[in-house]
Amino acid sequence: MAQKEETAQAAAPTSQDGEDLENPEDPKNLKELVELPPFEIVTGERLPANFFKFQFRNVEYSSGRNKTFLCYVVEAQSKGGQVQASRGYLEDEHAAAHAEEAFFNTIMPAFDPALCYLVTWYVSSSPCAACADRIVRTLNKTKNLRLLLLAGRLFMWEEPEIQAALRKLKEAGCKLRIMKPQDFEYVWQNFVEQEEGESKAFEPWEDIQENFLYYDEKLADILK
User: Fold this and answer.
1) 127 Cβ partners below 8 Å, 6+ apart?
2) Which of 48, 60, 126, 165 is close enough to 132 for a disulfide, judged by CB 3.0 to 4.6 Å?
3) Which pLDDT tens digit goes with each residue over 45-65?
4) Catalytic residues
5) For 139-164, how does the pLDDT look when each residue is reduced to its tens digit (9 = 90+)?
6) What is d(CA 213, CA 190) in angstroms, rounded to the nearest whole number?
């Protein structure tokens, strides 16, 4: 079973990279906790290593992980067989917008009917019900789009609304998978900044395989 983090750690205020904020009453820290813009989407090619290690960790109790990191690979194939590929990541800063919806609004606002699209997402957690609905609507109206969604964790998987949303994703043709340890390694190698002097080898955290099996079983039960 996936391990829960200590409640004492869960109660501590954290910054977006998961670091505990020292002296949260300090004006500088209050600015990070309170004075936030209502909407912002961060995009880029590679995310900081400390963000990955905290946000993608496949724990059951995801305290402090109140945003979604979405790494994507887009392959667009023409009828002649030529493939154009692009990759990057999205990070939703606040609750006003989610990375899944932002992907369709900013990265792929339109689809060329002459191309076939294979899109792969590596997300820190599975979509909420609203984002799942947006994905379903996009898949239903875009017949030349195939989406593979690999999630590090399941978001609020015990809620009936979330379970129904995941089943609708499957029915719409979205392939849903839980990230295996080798998927985390792929993200580390292809989407994470490598600092000078830092080991480039992926170092799995404790219980990564056990937690994968836990979530994989839950997803299988939901999608029956």
Assistant:
1) 98, 100, 135, 149, 155, 165, 169
2) 165
3) 677 887 788 778 888 776 666
4) 100
5) 999 999 999 999 999 998 999 999 99
6) 24
